């Protein structure tokens, strides 16, 4: 038999309880609608990426026989914070730069040419058969703020497909110059998210970075020396020679007043403690982006951005020249030749 309190709660609740129940029903309805909408969007996007045709491979230009007997060096190319679709007018940043989809493509092509030329020069003394590409997110500008929605060159779905094609073209451009290209793409970031806040669960699936990565994979499917690995979790370990890189986007690192060096060190310490009793999860260095400035230390390599200074950076008194980074890894001696490619 129900008590008077139970009876009142069910049949004659207080006005506050009624209000809260109505709020819960509304939130549940909104959640179901959002799940349905994002699920349908993901299905449409995957159907689109499946229809992407693969690029035709070009003849190999690298002959590994020239360096037989030397220790194989791996070149690492870190791609991050590309922001396809973003538009920055020169007047909005007092002449500190500009950015557009056309500049996006031109800078990627210039980066590819410089990486190829650099590898050719380094091969005068080293055997460099392998290229490792690490993508750490923010491939698109996204539509997470009303300002981006009104100033972007085109909507987020278009950004994702065009960015995927351009990155696929970059990989195809590099492919003839290396015996093997391995690429790892992190899909969790902040600009590519499809929700108001970042998701801890399925954040790498419900993200335009996922579409970018699958477009790259489809576009390079005919390149036999290229492997595309897509990672939808918050971080991933990439093995390069003696290095074990813990790769993630970097938006999880909290900080203020410029580069949060304390936040970088704190993240490294937290990850080290978390992984210290799990040998297979250990790492030698972190690789991330998000902060638009390249820094290399014993604990981490952070990357730059392809877009450079935008109006928000300018309003905060920050200036970051457009750049990406690369370095070489010796199987025994580790990293060397960390390079900022100013674009």
Protein described:
With 343 residues, the chain is an alpha/beta fold. It has a single domain (73-252, 262-342), classed as Purple Acid Phosphatase, chain A, domain 2 (4-Layer Sandwich), CATH 3.60.21. It is 36% helix and 19% strand. The protein contains 8 helices and 11 strands. It has helices spanning 4-11, 15-50, 101-122, 146-151, 156-174, 208-219, 261-275, 311-315; strands at 72-79, 127-135, 180-186, 226-231, 236-240, 243-247, 285-288, 295-296, 300-302, 323-330, 334-342. The strands form 2 sheets. The chain has a 6-stranded mixed sheet with strand order 4-3-2-1-10-11, with helices on one face. A 5-stranded mixed sheet has the order 5-6-7-9-8, with no helix packed on it. Helix 7 links the parallel strand 6 and strand 7. Helix 3 packs parallel to helix 5 (156-174). The longest helix has 36 residues, at 15-50. The radius of gyration is 23 Å and the shape is globular. The chain starts with a helix and ends with a strand. The model has no long low-confidence stretch (mean pLDDT 88).
Describe the secondary structure blueprint for this structure.
Elements: H1 4-11, H2 15-50, E1 72-79, H3 101-122, E2 127-135, H4 146-151, H5 156-174, E3 180-186, H6 208-219, E4 226-231, E5 236-240, E6 243-247, H7 261-275, E7 285-288, E8 295-296, E9 300-302, H8 311-315, E10 323-330, E11 334-342
Parallel strand pairs: 1-2, 2-3, 3-4, 6-7, 7-9
Antiparallel strand pairs: 1-10, 5-6, 8-9, 10-11
Helix pairs in contact: 2-6, 3-5, 5-6
